[in-house]
Design goal:
Blueprint: H1 3-45, H2 59-151, H3 157-231, H4 233-248, H5 252-263, H6 280-283, H7 286-313, H8 334-371, H9 382-432, H10 444-449, H11 451-456, H12 458-464, E1 475-479, E2 498-503, E3 510-514, E4 520-524, E5 528-532
Antiparallel strand pairs: 1-2, 1-5, 2-3, 3-4
GO biological process, one term: signal transduction
Domain REM-1: 331-408
Family: Belongs to the FNBP1 family.
Length: 539
Amino acid sequence: DQFDNLDKHTQWGIDFLEKYAKFVKERIEIEQNYAKQLRNLVKKYCPKRSPKDEEPRFTSCIAFFNILNELNDYAGQREVVAEEMGHRVYGELMRYSHDLKTERKMHLQEGRKAQQYLDMCWKQMDNSKKKFERECKEAEKAQQSYERLDNDTNATKADVEKAKQQLNLRTHMADENKNEYAAQLQNFNGEQHKHYYIVIPQIYKQLQEMDERRTIKLSECYKGFADSERKVIPIISKCLEGMILAAKSVDEHRDSQLVIDCFKSGFEPPGDFPFEDYSQNIYRTISDGTISTPKQEGMRIDSKTTVGKAKGKLWLFGKKPKGPALEDFSHLPPEQRRKKLQQRIDELNRELQKETDQKDALIKMKDVYEKNPQMGDPGSLQPKLTETMSNMDRLRMEIHKNEAWLSEVEGKVAARSDRRHSSDINHLVTQGRESPEGSYTDDANQEVRGPPQQHAHPNEFDDEFEDDDPLPAIGHCKAIYPFDGHNEGTLAMKEGEILYIIEEDKGDGWTRARRHNGEEGYVPTSYIDVTLEKNSKGA
């Protein structure tokens, strides 16, 4: 008798199922947005593709990029969770909700039909009952009328007979209605018993089974909701372990060494500046000034301009020129030049290996064509083979040239440290030659061109006496490659040009040379073929 309440309860069950489905849908959207935001974050901080030289080399940077990769994988697992929930939980809930609504509607329609049929049987029984009641009342009236006429002496026999026939008719109709009422009553009682003991219990049982299946489905979806998360936990744990390993891979000492290797120039620290005594005129006597004053005065004036001129030429030894990069990287510091040359040699060797492999393949193919002319013409491979051989010769020449530059740099870097102590000693000897009064020896050539002073301060003393007699040539050289000489202090030259050598390379990659017209300047040592005189080093 609680059909309406069961109707409400089953509707509430379906509403609750759809409410949970909505919850799962919103959780899926959260997972998808979370994964999307994580991927955008990784994309934002992940470096773009860069040239090989600009790739990150520090362990801290590499570890961070590994963490970004692991985080990207973690975002992928969040997408897997969302996909699993959508397929296994939300999709299943929506399909089951649709089936549940259809089944509930069918059961409720059956219950309503059974109730309507019972109501119809009750109405038929009630109508037959009322009709029987009405006929009984009519029969009682007919009997009373007959008895009244029968006791009335004034009534005719015809009236009495008519009343008797009417009584018999009403009594017969009452008996028929009685029988119909009894049949309808018996039918209604049977249908009512069937309704409450068979039909409705069966419908309620079906509704109960439907509601229990709904509850079981919710339980399975709860479990699937958790399983979707639990399945990806091992992979997520690996992602987190990868982040921890990336953190452990950071090596501060290696990063520091990379910084040192990147910026190491190979230059020697600058030498001490000489003491410039401006008090010479105070202590100079009249007799001393008669002969040596002009030379000392000239030297004093030159010493003032020495610093400025030396600063202008510091780029030759310690600063990077602003001009274009040279083929032999002589514009770079020695250590960086050595690295660049080694990289170029490695690249050339790889190219040479490729050309060698290609040559071997062409030779094999040519042999096959010669043995089997139907497969191809051997002569068609000759132009390609010639081109490959030419490329190999060119690469070998390039490798030989760069190896010569590399050996030159490595030799000079090694010699630079050996020469450092002797330079310090020569610098002390130069200072020791100055007298307490600040006077110098009369021989200016010895002061300027002597080996100790050349090794100690080539930049300062080269220009200090540029107005004196030109330096003697200690040899000659031939330009192997052309040199623009657009920077200050350099000397331009053409390929094959002959120049005089007036100062050897001090280990910085530059040689001082002079043209026939007297123009002087520095040229790259690697660009010339030097021939020194036999006694030049002792001069």
